[in-house]
Design a protein that fits this description.
Layout lengths: L5 H4 L14 H9 L6 E5 L4 H13 L4 E6 L29 E5 L3 H10 L3 E5 L7 E3 L9 E5 L8 H6 L2 E4 L11 H15 L6
Parallel strand pairs: 1-2, 1-6, 2-3, 4-6, 4-7, 5-7
Length: about 200
């Protein structure tokens, strides 16, 4: 017969049993002890569902940090959160436990330089014609990998693709042209984690 701590049994947050009863800060600290090196970058995502799902994916696979590149707000161009705050409800609280930062998209060079200085390889995840494409199922990722994902309708900006080290794509055999960006993110995060498992002991 299992025994459930009464205090934990009334914690209705979407958490594994190991995290029930902990504060958000304690959960963040516990996750920081096991995080891998994967970095997620999301450019100009316009749908709250995709933002929230990518945050959940990132949490599920213990990534290091999530970076949002946001379009400028014409009324407040220095605001790194861009033109629209996102509704975080779909992240079911995962946003409280992840290292999330917001940047103006025009500031990408500074971050790319920082990651290269840390020996990261930067992957553009897209299927844009005219670039050398690498099949994600045939790619061996270094432990220090950054994955760039673009907005739903037009994909990644050419400047980001050119500044990345490689472009990877997810082969599809069905009739649709592309995958939802948060689905693509989940696939790439899972494949990366299969190559670089995160210890949970």
């Amino acid at each position: 017969m299992s025994h459930i701590n009464l205090e934990n049994s009334i914690d209705y947050r979407n958490l594994g049993s190991d995290f029930k009863g902990m504060t958000n800060e304690q959960i963040m600290q516990a996750l920081d002890q096991r995080r891998g090196d994967m970095i997620t970058v999301l450019q100009n995502l316009t749908h709250d569902f995709n933002k929230a799902t990518a945050v959940r994916n990132h949490n599920a696979f213990s990534g290091r940090e999530i970076v949002f590149f946001n379009p400028d707000n014409p009324m407040d161009k220095e605001n790194s959160e861009g033109a629209k705050k996102w509704n975080k409800k779909g992240a079911v609280g995962a946003q409280h436990y992840e290292h999330i930062s917001h940047h103006r998209i025009m500031d990408y060079q500074k971050l790319f330089h920082k990651w290269h200085q840390e020996d990261y390889v930067i992957y553009a995840v897209d299927n844009t014609p005219g670039y050398e494409l690498h099949n994600v199922f045939e790619t061996t990722f270094p432990k220090k990998s950054v994955f760039l994902f673009g907005e739903e309708q037009i994909g990644l900006a050419d400047e980001l693709i050119k500044a990345a080290d490689k472009m990877i794509y997810i082969p599809q055999t069905g009739s649709v042209r592309s995958l939802n960006v948060s689905v693509a993110h989940g696939i790439v995060a899972a494949l990366y984690t299969a190559q670089h498992p995160v210890p949970i002991d």
